């Protein structure tokens, strides 16, 4: 029974992170929603989740590109809810460009947000989980944590790093009632993916439906997007007792991508 646990989900005012927060809140898990902004909409999002599920939800601003803010997010979650039981490292950005012209500042930002943030939040949260005698760290990697595509150097490097980091955290917590795993989604139709569609339409001279089927889902044999609800459900499973011996591994939610 996960009711009354506290989950921190980084990068969760949109897309997969928001879907995970909603699914966990349905299980009466208190959720901390996060992004780098601090708008009325951000706080209303938390209120809406709370109203709809009866779980407590709080929005806490923290920029995941900055190590000290990553650590402060965990501290503020403890101030709000007394503990952090579940850490979901989800914040992530993308940039698609050939390596020769790939902007170094984009490389740095992607490594910071998609990889280093998970190190900082886990560094703050794992000792607390150990003290409390229970914990789950779930890192949202990607099919690109296991395979590569051209023009995604920083993203693929960061996501492979997330898979490696997850294994190390799992080994360091192996004798504690704590697990750490990485989820590797294929394509999910979120704002991050939506943003890649117009350029791809132009580049290939294709309409939207053709881009989705022939380009985005070219490597996803199911020819369907995974959904944010399914990813929330996968996180919930990894938090359950059934998953207590699942640690240091990856779960693909990719419609068969990595079977190809
Ligand atoms: P999204 O753009 O909808 O969400 C990204 C979230 O991260 C947003 O809430 C955004 O506010 C937040 N964020 C960005 N920069 C931040 C920062 N500096 N500090 C704090 N928060 C920040 O994208 P998404 O598709 O939901 O992606 C979520 C995660 O899932 C990412 O790690 C992404 O790499 C991964 N993923 C996505 C897909 C997909 O197809 N959408 C596939 C595999 C993996």
From TrEMBL:
InterPro entries: 3-OHbutyrate_DH, NAD(P)-bd_dom_sf, Sc_DH/Rdtase_CS, SDR, SDR_fam. One of its GO terms (molecular function) is 3-hydroxybutyrate dehydrogenase activity. Gene3D superfamilies: NAD(P)-binding Rossmann-like Domain. Its EC number is 1.1.1.30. Pfam families: adh_short_C2. One of its GO terms (biological process) is monocarboxylic acid metabolic process. Keywords: Oxidoreductase. It comes from the Bacteria. Coiled coil: none annotated. PANTHER family: 3-OXOACYL-(ACYL-CARRIER-PROTEIN) REDUCTASE (PTHR42879), 3-OXOACYL-[ACYL-CARRIER-PROTEIN] REDUCTASE FABG (PTHR42879:SF2). Belongs to the short-chain dehydrogenases/reductases (SDR) family. This is 3-hydroxybutyrate dehydrogenase.
């Amino acid at each position: 029974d996960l009711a009354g646990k506290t989950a921190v989900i980084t990068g969760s005012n949109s897309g997969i992170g928001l879907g995970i927060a909603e699914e966990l809140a349905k299980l009466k898990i208190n959720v901390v929603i996060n992004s780098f902004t601090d708008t009325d909409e951000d706080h209303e999002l938390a209120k809406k989740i709370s109203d709809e599920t009866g779980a407590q939800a709080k929005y806490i601003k923290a920029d995941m590109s900055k190590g000290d803010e990553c650590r402060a997010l965990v501290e503020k979650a403890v101030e709000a809810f007394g503990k952090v039981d579940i850490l979901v490292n989800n914040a992530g950005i993308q940039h698609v460009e050939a390596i020769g012209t790939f902007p170094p500042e984009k490389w740095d930002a992607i490594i910071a947000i998609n990889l280093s943030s998970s190190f900082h939040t886990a560094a703050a949260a794992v000792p607390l989980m150990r003290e409390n005698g229970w914990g789950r760290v779930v890192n949202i990697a990607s099919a690109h944590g296991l395979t590569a595509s051209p023009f995604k150097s920083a993203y693929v490097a960061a996501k492979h790093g997330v898979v490696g980091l997850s294994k190390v955290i799992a080994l360091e917590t192996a004798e504690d009632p704590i697990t750490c795993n990485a989820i590797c989604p294929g394509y999910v139709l979120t704002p991050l993916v939506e943003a890649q569609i117009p350029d791809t339409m132009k580049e290939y001279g294709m309409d939207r439906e053709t881009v989705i089927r022939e380009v985005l889902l070219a490597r996803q044999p199911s020819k369907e997007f995974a959904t944010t609800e399914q990813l929330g459900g996968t996180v919930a499973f990894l938090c359950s007792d059934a998953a207590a011996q699942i640690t240091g591994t990856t779960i693909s939610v990719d419609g068969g991508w990595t079977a190809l």
